């Protein structure tokens, strides 16, 4: 058989094989690939990845219906056969090489996984059934997929918190970093992650420490007691991160004073303790804060009384109105509170006593 005939026969068989492979490939995707307005989910996901607003709108409209398909796409891997065919493509005759390019395409599993993670983030809370596979994607070998998975988990919200807490204990710095970042995207609803994030303030990786501190600041008020504890007793590295987080929280805490004052009267002891500790940490003290702390020094819980007295002492001269009540508290049953009262009165300083009616009326 002439060489030319053999060559054409070989090329023909290769074309048939590649076409058959492409057909199998396409059938596999089509079987599990839902359609919306004439477009398959796989296509919509890649278009949204390219910032196509219509594709993003379509994904939001599909909502929960798109989640199973996107979850499958999140696990896409390039087969060994596809990689082998693509490696041969440059050495094939031009016509056959173009066929490979058109029918099989270059390996793109990373892009597909990244687009799927991003698409789940676009859907947001309705994609909560994808939390577990997204948490696994935090450990993807490709960093882009890892970050898109973190962003998606943050947008899904509270449902993601348990998986992200688990990821904070991972050996991989990148996994801990992205998990801490995602918790910050969730914000106050990630309150359950505060203890785990506090531990990461001592992480050996600087990026993990930084992300953890930022996330604690976005969680806000629920993180304040733990941050104050670290500032008082933590390691030097942890104190630095906690102080930075607290500085970011403080402006919003001032706006929350009325709510915290009401919380300081809550029937639940734990809530009153948190409110009083937070009020005492806001500086400078104002009249509303002093008034709330004055109410707290009469609390039946000794820890709350002690915290309120210490806070009034830190306020110094701004807490002069508290002197009569503090003086009456000098005989508190708890020795620690007695000592705190003495220190508070020393810090507040002497109070000028009115000598006549006009001065008493402020004239």
Q: How would you portray this structure in words?
A:
By secondary structure, the chain is mostly helical. Among the domains are: 1-124, no CATH class; 259-350, Alpha Horseshoe (Leucine-rich Repeat Variant), CATH 1.25.10. The protein contains 22 helices and two strands. The chain has helices spanning 3-31, 41-49, 53-62, 67-73, 80-88, 94-103, 109-123, 131-137, 143-156, 161-167, 173-186, 194-200, 206-219, 224-233, 236-255, 257-263, 269-281, 287-296, 302-315, 323-328, 335-348, 357-360; strands at 35-36, 39-40. The protein has a two-stranded antiparallel ribbon with strand order 1-2. A hairpin with a 2-residue loop joins strand 1 (35-36) and strand 2 (39-40). The protein is elongated.
List its traits.
363 residues; disordered C terminus; mainly alpha; two-stranded antiparallel ribbon; single chain; 2 strands; Leucine-rich Repeat Variant
């Amino acid at each position: 058989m002439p060489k030319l005939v053999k060559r054409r026969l070989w090329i023909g068989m290769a074309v048939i094989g590649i076409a058959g492979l492409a057909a199998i490939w396409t059938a596999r995707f089509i079987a599990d690939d839902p359609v919306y307005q004439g477009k398959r989910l796989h296509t919509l996901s890649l278009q949204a990845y390219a910032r196509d607003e219509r594709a993003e709108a379509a994904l939001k409209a599909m909502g929960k219906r798109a989640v199973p398909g996107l979850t499958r796409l999140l696990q896409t891997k390039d087969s060994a056969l596809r990689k082998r065919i693509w490696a041969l493509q440059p050495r094939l005759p031009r016509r056959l090489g173009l066929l490979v390019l058109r029918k099989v395409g270059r390996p793109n599993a990373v892009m597909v996984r990244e687009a799927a993670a991003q698409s789940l983030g676009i859907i947001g809370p309705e994609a909560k059934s994808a939390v577990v596979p997204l948490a696994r994607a935090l450990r993807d070998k490709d960093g882009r997929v890892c970050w898109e998975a973190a962003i998606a988990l943050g947008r899904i919200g509270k449902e993601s918190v348990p998986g992200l807490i688990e990821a904070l204990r991972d050996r991989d710095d990148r996994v801990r970093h992205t998990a801490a970042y995602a918790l910050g995207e969730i914000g106050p609803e990630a309150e359950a992650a505060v203890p785990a994030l506090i531990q990461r303030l001592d992480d050996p990786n600087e990026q993990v420490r930084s992300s953890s501190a930022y996330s604690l600041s976005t969680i806000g008020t629920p993180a304040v007691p733990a941050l104050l504890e670290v500032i008082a007793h933590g390691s030097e590295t942890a104190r630095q991160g906690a102080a930075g987080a607290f500085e970011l929280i403080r402006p919003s805490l001032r706006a929350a004073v009325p709510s915290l004052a009401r919380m300081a009267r809550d029937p639940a002891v734990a809530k009153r303790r948190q409110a009083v500790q937070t009020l005492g940490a806001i500086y400078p003290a104002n009249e509303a804060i002093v008034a709330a702390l004055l109410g707290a020094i009469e609390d039946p819980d000794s820890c709350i009384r002690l915290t309120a007295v210490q806070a009034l002492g830190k306020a110094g001269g701004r807490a002069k109105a508290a002197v009569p009540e503090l003086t009456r508290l000098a005989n508190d049953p708890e020795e620690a509170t007695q000592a705190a009262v003495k220190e508070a009165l020393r810090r507040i300083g002497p109070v000028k006593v009115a000598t006549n009616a006009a001065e008493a009326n402020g004239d």
